[in-house]
Amino acid sequence: MGNPKVVLGVSGGIAAYKACELLRRLTESGHDVRVVPTASALNFVGEATWAALSGHPAGTEVWETVHEVPHVRIGQAADLVVVAPATADMLAKAAHGLADDLLTNTLLTARCPVVFAPAMHTEMWEHPATRENVATLRRRGAVVIEPAVGRLTGKDTGKGRLPDPEEIFEVCRAVLARGTADADLAGRHVVISAGGTREPLDPVRFLGNRSSGKQGYALARTAVARGARVTLVAANTALPDPAGADVVRVGTAVQLREAVLKAAADADAVVMAAAVADFRPAEYAAGKIKKQEGRDPAPVALVRNPDVLAEVSADRAREGQVVVGFAAETDDVLAHGRAKLRRKGCDLLVVNEVGEDKTFGSEENEAVILASDGAELPVPYGPKETLADVVWDQVAARLA
């Protein structure tokens, strides 16, 4: 079958140099990459660089090697087209079907999944013309990744920064794995919680858990790859922001509740993958609790934290909203899971067995997805992205 064929389109923004890192990750992972820059992009990174890194010529014009009909053949042969960076000008041309160079012709002839990774100043990203162009592309099934927030050119800071190339690569990998141009979550807003809450005991100590956030981040990446607008509520994670997700950072269960309820107000689906502490210390010590010789420490009184999953399930912000919970159990996994599903009132509950060497911090997971109608779907041991895609399959079916 050969290596997957990827077209890397590069348009004329200062972030063009970052596409070199994306190209390296694609080629090193076994993809056959053809770089198609615009003429403006070559002002930032020269043609020789693209040719050397990809092993293919990197022309910009339809008039080069005319006998090979490159303006048609490149798009026809591609398994994926990714444009990174995608400038406001490129998004406008793609949305309106303009074809004045090799890249825009390639976009018109491609019948494979297309991913755009925008990069521009905040004012350009927020302009109504750009927003309408993005909406048009998404309606047609293209994946348009939300840009990151950070330092732009000059002294400016804001939304419009090209996401980390490694995270763009993960989106591309997820899109290729699905092997379809059908972005079945396009136009949907999904909210995902990830990580583990920490409940402070004093300025240096807290009650916490072993959750790394990797499953929640996998859910975010796969949702982006399926066209969704993603809000990721991240509790105490040390992972890079998934490309295309709006990340809200929280620490405690109370903070997580506030962030989830705010984001869920217009969400089509809420997936509670975070490990939320059931209890928190009743009192917070303003100073470090000191060890006293010859005396046992005073007992730590605990109070209940809000049950965010049950609250979201019981008081859905909009009709048809799908709510998914996660249950980490150590014994009688399915029995506890079925009881929790009834108690929480969610549509789906992903149940898995956890322990010191199971699930937490791992790249793999296995689970059983329990549904409120009594259905049970086992998901065998494998990458967390695989479980995430199965969860979104179930969510998409209910949204449809």
TrEMBL record:
CTP binds at residues 278, 288, 306-309, 326, 340, 344. Binds 1 FMN per subunit. GO terms for molecular function: phosphopantothenate--cysteine ligase activity; phosphopantothenoylcysteine decarboxylase activity. InterPro entries: CoaB-like_sf, CoaBC, DNA/pantothenate-metab_flavo_C, Flavin_trans-like, Flavoprotein. It catalyses: (R)-4'-phosphopantothenate + L-cysteine + CTP = N-[(R)-4-phosphopantothenoyl]-L-cysteine + CMP + diphosphate + H(+); N-[(R)-4-phosphopantothenoyl]-L-cysteine + H(+) = (R)-4'-phosphopantetheine + CO2. Residues 1-189 are annotated as: Phosphopantothenoylcysteine decarboxylase. Residues 190-400 are annotated as: Phosphopantothenate--cysteine ligase. It holds the Pfam family Flavoprotein. Keywords: Decarboxylase, Flavoprotein, FMN, Ligase, Lyase, Magnesium, Metal-binding, Multifunctional enzyme. SUPFAM superfamilies: CoaB-like, Homo-oligomeric flavin-containing Cys decarboxylases, HFCD. Pathway: Cofactor biosynthesis; coenzyme A biosynthesis; CoA from (R)-pantothenate: step 2/5; Cofactor biosynthesis; coenzyme A biosynthesis; CoA from (R)-pantothenate: step 3/5. Residues 185-397 form the DNA/pantothenate metabolism flavoprotein C-terminal domain. Residues 5-173 form the Flavoprotein domain. Its EC number is 4.1.1.36, 6.3.2.5. It comes from the Bacteria. Its cofactor is Mg(2+); FMN. In the N-terminal section; belongs to the HFCD (homo-oligomeric flavin containing Cys decarboxylase) superfamily. HAMAP family: CoaBC. Catalyzes two sequential steps in the biosynthesis of coenzyme A. In the first step cysteine is conjugated to 4'-phosphopantothenate to form 4-phosphopantothenoylcysteine. In the second step the latter compound is decarboxylated to form 4'-phosphopantotheine. Catalyzes two steps in the biosynthesis of coenzyme A. In the first step cysteine is conjugated to 4'-phosphopantothenate to form 4-phosphopantothenoylcysteine, in the latter compound is decarboxylated to form 4'-phosphopantotheine. This is Coenzyme A biosynthesis bifunctional protein CoaBC.
